[in-house]
Amino acid sequence: MRRLAAAAAVAGAAVALAGCTLVPTTKEPATIPPRAVPLGLLGHTIPGTNNGHVVFITQPVYIVDATGHLSASSRIVPRPPTLLSVLRELVLGPTAIETEGGYTSALPANLTILQAVIVHHMGYIELAQPFTGLHRHRVEMIMGQLTLTAFAVGATSGVKMFVNGTPLRVPRPSGPSVLIATVRDYQSLLNA
Question: How would DSSP label each residue in 42-95?
Answer without folding.
Answer: TSSS-TTSSS----EEEEEEEEE-TTSSEEEEEEEEESSP-HHHHHHHHHT-S-
